[in-house]
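Comment thread on ticket #2218

A.B. wrote:
> Attaching the input chain for the structure job we discussed in standup.
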Amino acid sequence: MLIRTLVVSDDARTSSALATAITGAGHQSHTLPSTIGATRLIQSEQIQVVVLDLSGPEVDGHKLARVLHQDRRFTRPGFVIVTSRPTEELQPVAIALGARDILQHDRVDAELADALHKARPRSQPRPSRPGVDSIPA
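C.D. wrote:
> Ran it. Output below, let me know if you need it in another format.
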């Protein structure tokens, strides 16, 4: 099952590696260098899971969580946090986002696909794909 994801990382190499891992697992990936523009992309592309790289200083997960909680126009995506920092430091952000997983950079390859499936909101209807999900009458 295809999962539409958004990778938010201020490090181009990390962003590229995460996007490659996501597409390699058969999912769709968009990338942004910061949370600026994230809400627009989440809405326009019907993003199901946001992968936040919180290792760098430019990504503010608290602000993104607040915006998504307050604005009723958004179907709230699931969240996965990726970091090189100790996971204890990020527990407040994970709680604010409702993140299902905090993955260490060195464990991403082994755990990302499973984390995406766990983070995908179950209440979102799967969009139909003409010719794929429907049988012509």
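A.B. wrote:
> Thanks. Noting for the ticket: The mean pLDDT is 79.
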